[in-house]
Write a structure and sequence with these properties.
Elements lengths: L9 H11 L1 H10 L7 H17 L26 H28 L1 H14 L4 H8 L7 H26 L14
Helix pairs in contact: 1-3, 1-4, 2-4, 3-4
Length: 183
Amino acid sequence: MPEERQITHTQVLLDQMCGLLGGRAAEDLFLNRISTGAANDLERVTKLAYAMVVYYGMSEKLPNVNFMDNSGEYTFQKPYSDETAQIIDKEVSRLIAEQYNRAKEILTQDAEGHHRLYEMLLEREVIFTEDVEAIFGKRPWASRTEELESEQPKQEERDKDTETLSEEADPAGQQPVPPPFKG
């Protein structure tokens, strides 16, 4: 069976970046200061933005181009010019800035809810899905867990159908014996 590869759309990657930048944006908006707490998120966002531009060709200025060196050798040369390197850096900065601003907009839209969440976390330290839903309501889309749970009965039905077809093809459960070789 061939290797299964995940295909991810541009908007999904942008949503991931926006989510990763949410903590830093919240510090900036609600505390008027930032901390080192977002270091890992910033690293992930930066790598994701570079991948979008350099590997996936998801850039407005450099669309449909992949600059990955597939030689498998460690080289000290980049497969593009200094001018292109500057364009890449600008595109990465633009993507990150746009998603940071988007995160701040989302946080601003429900600042009161975020303040309530903050107070709840100070009070309890641990919160659950139900607590978040009590503040913000249920999400308008299914979670991945809900998707998988809804797919499980369908897969069980397909497995049952396959089993039935196999039994109908050979009710005794025996493999057919090939005819003897005549040569």
